[in-house]
Predict the structure.
Amino acid sequence: MREKLKLFVAFFCGAIFFSGISYATNNLNASVIDLKIVVNGQEKVLSEKPVVINSRTYLPVRDIGTITGYDVSYQKGVVSLNNMNSTSENSNEDQNQSSFEFQKLPITISKNGITVTVNSVSLGENSTDFNITVKNNSDKDIEVNYRSTVLGANYKVSGKQYQTFGTISGENEFSKPVKAGSTVTGIIRKGKVEDGTENLLFHLLINGEGFSFYIDTKGLF
């Protein structure tokens, strides 16, 4: 039976950034900490460091969901975590939601006047490099959040372990907002996947809207 969890949140924080210092106001005390995240004996890398707020530890939902086998989405105040490893004994609706259709590149997704194309992917010396085009047809500038998402590799591939990779730090063409009516092409770098990787799960957040690409890489690397 497919496991599905929905968290209704009154306060949603997409990303919190601190500079290694403590911040306090209105009885709110927060600081960045260094933690090792280990899943089934394998250490995982998060795109952002954990944050302690009033003695409670907070982790990036998308990162934790992905590395533990959940597809994470956010829409209209609802964070949804869907088990990617569930069986097929479900309703037709659940079956459609749980299956990923991996496609060869290029792949294009359009939402709310924004069009994103993954043109190509290649392996660098220490990174997996995605050539991305973002076309902003809306009347507002948009923020491309590529740092707070993780890359998944070898999803449900027989004989291979599902792995996740964080973002390689550094500035790129998407470090600044994409202006209304403009088009930007650039490179987003994630951790380096293994030779022989058969598929990739690549995610972007643009103004809080998720763009998920399921890429067939058989024979590519």
Observations:
- The domain at 107-216 is CATH 2.60.40.4170 (Immunoglobulin-like).
- Helices lie at 61-67, 92-98.
